[in-house]
Amino acid sequence: MALYLKKSFYKTKTIHSLDTHLLNFMKKLFTFLLICLAAQTIAFAQTANAILFTENGERFTIILNGVRQNQRPETNVKLTGLTSENYKMRVIFEDKRLGVMDNTLYVYYGEEITYAIRKKKSKYVLRFVSQNQIGGGAANANNYNNNSGGNGYNNNGGYNNNGGYNPTPNPPRPNGSTTTTTTTNGGVAVNGQISVGGVTIGGQVNTGNSTTTTTNGGVVPPPTPQPYVLPGYTGVYGCPYPMQPDAFQAAKNSIAKQPFDDNKLMIAKQVITSNCLLTSQVKELAKMFTFEDRRLDFAKFAYGYTLDINNYFVINDVFTFPSSVEDLNDYIVSYRR
Question: Where is the composition biased (Low complexity) (predicted)?
Answer without folding.
Answer: 149-167, 175-187
